[in-house]
Amino acid sequence: xxxxxxxxxxxxxxxxxxxxxxxxxxxxxxxxxxxxxxxxxxxxxxxxxxxxxxxxxxxxxxxxxxxxxxxxxxxxxxxxxxxxxxxxxxxxxxxxxxxxxxxxxxxxxxxxxxxxxxxxxxxxxxxxxxxxxxxxxxxxxxxxxxxxxxxxxxxxxxxxxxxxxxxxxxxxxxxxxxxxxxxxxxxxxxxxxxxxxxxxxxxxxxxxxxxxxxxxxxxxxxxxxxxxxxxxxxxxxxxxxxxxxxxxxxxxxxxxxxxxxxxxxxxxxxxxxxxxxxxxxxxxxxxxxxxxxxxxxxxxxxx
Length: 303
What we know:
Layout: H1 12-35, H2 40-61, H3 65-77, H4 79-93, H5 98-109, H6 113-120, H7 124-135, H8 137-150, H9 154-177, H10 183-186, H11 198-210, H12 220-235, H13 237-256, H14 262-285
Helix pairs in contact: 1-2, 1-9, 2-3, 4-9, 7-11, 7-13, 8-9, 8-12, 8-13, 9-12, 9-14, 12-13, 12-14
């Protein structure tokens, strides 16, 4: 039996990751040429290491349980670093498009919702719940594919990882070339009962230490969370229903907490709907496997 050529073992997420790193490398080189960005050798070295991971992923997936996990999960494990790089590159660009987005906000919603909402409706209970949902962002992202992985639905987990990472890559490309700082930087912070609750203070503390400037439009928080939850609803309905209230709260929280303009959240929802539609169409046209046992569930079924 002939062995399958190695290049055929690269998955969609490998290709998407390689393509994004190529675009980000171009952004680093452009920033160095135009702005003399500091630390560019380190960024390029990191990109080379990530490309090495992409190249080694097929071999890792064939090297046992741990290798299979790392070969499928490496993009999700790199997320914090990829997000952190956005702030370095967009800040070095020296420009932002907030005025344009603020005009769009006024045109769509009639006013600056992200500025007015928490000031005109400073409810402690609402703020506590919404900011708690905002803090559930990373648990939502990782719970969806990880729970599917742990119960043996490996193909569903891989599809979810691809959908989430493709969503991030699309958002990140927009951030690199169309940076929007967001209302957290454009406006003064609110100071009232709503901002003094524990989750709100903790969210502010986290963002002060790990936020990326220029990564507001579209909201990757909204887009990726909705995609992760939508994929969970598709493959394991009970998991999706568990994540759904937190995701709904997060969509509201990014605006209430003055983290994103309302149009950022709207754009994130549109992007998520497009990605979920693409995934559903792709799976509908792909050959279907026969379901075997409790964990061999066909795409689209629920438990």
